[in-house]
Amino acid sequence: MTADKIKAAALAHFANHGYSGASLSGIASDVGIKTPSIYAHFKNKDELFLAVTEEAIAHEWEKATAYFNDSSLSFKEKLYGFLQLQMENYEQDERAKFWLRTSFFPPEHLEEQLMDHVYSYLDKMESLLLQEFKEAKEPGLQDLNIKYAAKAYIALLDGVFVEMLYGGEGSAEERLEASWYMYERALFN
């Protein structure tokens, strides 16, 4: 139970302050324990950070697969809606904020290990999108190179993520609208 409380507090600290800005003493204080008590559950800050990362990745993947399994939306609605959902999640969900921040700004000494997680997630996302494209019944999609369409969608998502990190919500919304306008015209017109 205490390990879960430690991870929850750590998630908030890492999401809002990054790896170097988060302190074990601040995390311990939020949990209501002394800093050395953290070591009963986690060997060090790195182990805690990696445990939080793995949970955040699993959570984000569950949300993505649940979203794309929703059969009430058209393919086009799913693609656009997922972009909007990612923006909302970044603003409202500490795990999404943490995962995005970690993906783009990993602690240098953990970068290789974290990039393995990032690329694994991106590969799974591309596979999920390829399956969605294969199953889509939209006219004209059968003439597309769906592998390129899936990769372009991920690039569009990356562009929105970068703007969320650097430009803020209003700027990210503008980037989303402009990018989606061009992507939609290429795929569905």
Keywords, please?
single chain; 189 residues; mainly alpha; HTH-type_Tx_Regulator; DNA-binding; Tet_transcr_reg_TetR-rel_C_sf
Describe the structure.
It is built from nine helices and no strands. The chain has helices spanning 2-21, 24-31, 35-38, 45-68, 75-92, 94-104, 111-135, 146-166, 169-188. It is an all-alpha fold. The model has no long low-confidence stretch (mean pLDDT 93).
Quick recap:
By secondary structure, the chain is an all-alpha fold. It is built from 9 helices and no strands.
Helix-strand blueprint:
Elements: H1 2-21, H2 24-31, H3 35-38, H4 45-68, H5 75-92, H6 94-104, H7 111-135, H8 146-166, H9 169-188
Helix pairs in contact: 1-2, 1-4, 1-6, 4-6, 4-7, 5-6, 5-8, 5-9, 7-8, 8-9
Distance N to C terminus:
53 Å
| Estimated share of beta-strand residues | under 5%
- DSSP helix count? 9
Q: What is the element string, with H for helices and E for strands?
A: HHHHHHHHH
